[in-house]
Amino acid sequence: MRKLSVEELADRIVAGSRGHIARAITLVESTKPEHRDYAHQLLRLIAPRTGHAFRVGISGVPGAGKSTFIDAMGIKLIDERHHKVAVLAVDPSSSRTGGSILGDRTRMAELASREDAFIRPSPSGGHLGGVARATRESMLVLEAAGYDVILVETVGVGQSEVAVAGMVDTFLMLQVARTGDQLQGIKRGILELADVIAITKADGDNEQAARVAARELSIAMKLITSDTKKRRAPVLTCSSYTGAGLDELWNAVEKHRAELEAEGSLAARRLDQQRDWLWNMVRDELLESLRTSPLVRSVADDVEAQLAEESLSALEGSQIILRAFADALPSLPWAQHTPHSA
């Protein structure tokens, strides 16, 4: 494939070329300096066409059926509400190979076959920060291509939920009815992130149990905060198999977005996310440069050796490493501004 100018690639993305959308996402996922420079130019060009999509994060306990839910909801949004749906999977669990787990395509087989759907797992590159950066930038590419619903699925647990909540407008938490303690294994911190909660698999013999779980979780949500003025996440039930409750669930997502817009807090939320993204990017670039700079690495090895011999204190060693980093600054990739094309 011939190299395209950044302007050509931007035009192909806006025209909806799936091949060029995929190519652009691969570009923004890359950590190579020449690719990062090209990606930054691309993101600047497409920026005016971004920011209008529903950005929805989706997480859930193991067994909640996230992929099955996304498949069913995505099809409904395309067929009945005429949306264009993109799915991105934040997957920090695939660091062994450096790639991404592609099982989502098979679990979302029907959605993946639709012309108005785009499914893309995000490789981790070994750390969650890399996933978050690639996912944020991939969202912008997909918005510029006309996808007006972006679903970001967390494949991992723990910090991945926090990362996803920091890049979406509405965070949807999926739970499943369990025997015994309905709240077992659900961390309070994760519940506090949720804007909408759904009890899945509410069909057949499990329908009544799902309704009971929803009622108990609604009560639990009231106990999380004593502030009666603070918005509480609604708890609904749904079935990806029968489709029951999916319309009501998406209505709750739309209502949450409408509330944010009416309060003027949608723009504020996105500005806060941009600010967090800015400083996360600065931190990640600095740490990566500290880790990979040959000059800094050689000095750090010497400092660590002296530290082991107790001939140098940690404070003195940190100053030596930082001075080496300052000396290495002119040679670091992000300190150079040579334009590239690809």
From TrEMBL:
Membrane spanning residue stretches: none
Kinase found in the keyword field: yes
NCBIfam families in UniProt: lao, PRK09435.1
One family name in Pfam for this protein: MeaB
GO molecular function: GTP binding; GTPase activity; kinase activity
Family stated for the protein in its record: Belongs to the SIMIBI class G3E GTPase family. ArgK/MeaB subfamily.
Protein name in the entry: ATPase/protein kinase
UniProt superkingdom: Bacteria
Residues forming coiled coils: none
GO cellular component: cytoplasm
InterPro entries, per the entry: GTPase_ArgK, P-loop_NTPase
Keyword vocabulary terms for this entry: Kinase, Transferase
